[in-house]
């Protein structure tokens, strides 16, 4: 059986927190009184979808043996996590009031998780490509 690295596990956990945490813990604002949704609701859905892609890629990455393939997947995490980071507030507008849940909980959580995923992926890519030389 192949040895699973600590970076594999950390990326899997961070991606899972991004995907499922955004959906269930640090989600956007609830529905309005009339039953309609604010714009931040759609930002949440995009973050969850991109987080799911990161989550499944990280799960797939755990079972890979080839170092170059793992480096390639780590490299793909960088633009994907940057795109996810840009969703709340840049690509999809959030609520107008800065005190709303989407500004105070969801957006900072997404930013921190995406920066961690991006940084760890960059480090992992560099380490794996150096091993190949």
Record the SSE blueprint:
Elements: H1 6-24, H2 39-62, H3 67-86, H4 101-132
Offer a few descriptive terms.
71% helix; single chain; 133 residues; mainly alpha
Describe the structure.
The chain has about 130 residues and is mainly α. It has four helices and no strands. It is elongated, with a radius of gyration of 16 Å.
Give the count of helical stretches. Answer: 4
| DSSP, total strands | 0
Radius of gyration (CA) equals 16 Å
Helix-strand category = mainly alpha
SSE order in H/E notation? HHHH
Could you list the spans in which at least 5 consecutive residues all have pLDDT below 50?
Answer: none
Distance between the termini: 25 Å
The helix content is over 70%
Mean of residue pLDDT?
92
How many strands, which pairing sense, and closed or not: the largest β-sheet?
Answer: none
Concise overview:
The chain has 133 residues and is mostly helical. The protein contains four helices and no strands. Helices cover 71% and strands 0% of the residues.
